Amino acid sequence: MTSSPSTPTTLHPAGRSDEPADTIAVAARDLRCSYGSYEAVRGIDLTIRNGEFFALLGTNGAGKTTTMETLEGHRAATSGTVSVLGGNPYRDKSSIRPRLGIMLQEAGFADDLTVAETCRLWLRLSSPDPRSRSREDVIGTGLETLDLAGKASTRVKMLSGGQRRRLDLLLATANEPDLLFLDEPTTGLDPESRERTWDLVRGLNDAGTTVVLTTHYLEEAEAYADRLAIMHDGVIAVEGTLPDVLGREPSAISFEVDAAVDVLQLTRLGLSPDFTPTPASTRVAVPSLDLQQDLWKVLSWADEHRIRLDRLSASEASLAAVFRRVSLAA
After folding, report:
1. Residue 216 phi, psi dihedral angles, 5° rounding
2. Distance separating alpha carbons of residues 204 and 212, to the nearest angstrom
3. How are the residues of the chain apportioned to helix, strand and coil, as percentages rounded to the nearest 5?
4. Per-residue pLDDT for 106 more than 50?
5. pLDDT of res. 77
6. In 3D, which of 263, 255, 71 has the Cα closest to residue 179?
7. Closest CA to 185 of 87, 84, 68
8. Considering only CA atoms, which of 73, 76, 77 is closest in space to residue 96?
9. Is 126 helix (H, G, I), strand (E, B) or coil?
10. Which end of the chain is more exposed for a tag (fewer CB within 10 A), N or C?
């Protein structure tokens, strides 16, 4: 699917202009970000509601990282408007930053400090929020949840990459933020560590924290996101809930038949088969927007004509298929 900068394709509304402002955590309108003459983000509209789990996905060079940096307040927008927790994230850092949790792709820890010393330093540098319970208690619980309690006296430079990622997550969430940005949070983690990470994040989200996630693990977006957007070439190409997004993507039925079988008979059933002939057999792929009905048509056709279907498979539409289509769009 392709889209122009001024008319991004939206499968589900990002938000309505008549929504009360206090229900919105993030809002961007015609957001544009440039590096010199290069426009990395080309006029996107985005709304993320309070308490929502939103996944911002993107192909390489899509503008996803620039968008995240702008929402986090690390850079100013070139043009357009952006609001985070009711203020400008770049101009109003002093009031907004204490309410944010930000986990970047790479942390800037002091290698010679221990895990415990790193946590104490963070506590001294951060501004406590009177609405939150003791951050010392939060960190103590987080150390246990993320399996870092046994590493309290270990210097940061001795931690594995996965342990450093978990420490970064701990400090990003210790203030129990209203809005949490997660940039590839599980990269380099083993399956158990990934599960511990999501246990912590899901707990925060269930308690009301808004989560904005970027990840290359599409199954994470499928599992946890209330809504998602896929960026490509500086614009939002696809946006919506997972059912919205997958509802526009065809499922697939595939099988092999003897080379002598006339697979064009399937067109008389309202199907549109693609096929690849070989000397001995023909590989057939049938895109479908109603998998159950179309699979029944294929099986009935095969039964009526006594055709054997080898290597038969039927698969629902997937986020990976949507992502591939977007990445290949001109």
Report:
1. -95, -5
2. 12
3. 35, 30, 35
4. yes
5. 97
6. 71
7. 68
8. 73
9. coil
10. C
Q: Determine the 3-state secondary structure of 213 from DSSP.
A: strand
Q: What per-residue confidence (pLDDT) applies to 129?
A: 53
Q: Is 27 helix (H, G, I), strand (E, B) or coil?
A: strand
Q: Rounded to an integer, what distance in angstroms lies between the CA atom of residue 100 and that of residue 77?
A: 19
Tell me which amino acid residue 159 is. Answer: L
Q: Tell me how many degrees the CA angle 17-98-156 measures, rounded to the nearest 5.
A: 130
In the chain, the amino acid numbered 299 is L
Closest CA to 208 of 228, 180, 236: 180
Q: 283 phi and psi, to 5 degrees?
A: -90, 125
Q: Are strands 179-183 and 100-103 parallel, antiparallel or unpaired?
A: parallel
Can you tell me whether residue 261 is helix, strand or coil? coil
Instruction: Give me the phi and psi of 117, to 5 degrees please.
Output: -65, -40
Residue 323, Cβ density class (10 Å: 0-12 exposed, 13-18 middle, ≥19 buried):
buried
Give the position of tokens 């800037």.
Answer: 108
Cα 173 from Cα 192, distance rounded (Å): 19
CB 325 within 8 A of CB 59: no
H helix and E strand count, the chain: 10, 13
Measured distance CA(136)–CA(153) in Å, rounded: 16
Residue with token string 């998998």: 291
Angle at 69 between CA 13 and CA 147, to 5 degrees: 95
Collapse the DSSP code of 157 into the 3-class scheme (helix H, G, I; strand E, B; otherwise coil) and give the result: helix
Instruction: Give per-residue pLDDT as tens, 19-29.
Output: 666 799 999 99
Q: What is the DSSP string of 35-66?
A: ETTEEEEEEEEEEEETT-EEEEEE-TTSSHHH
Q: Rounded to the nearest 5°, which phi and psi values hold at 297? A: -60, -45
User: What pLDDT is recorded for position 21?
Assistant: 66
Residue type, 53: F
Candidates 300, 296, 267; CA nearest to 284 is: 267
For residue 3, what pLDDT is reported?
A: 39
Which H or E run contains 252? strand 251-258
DSSP-derived letter for residue 114 is: B
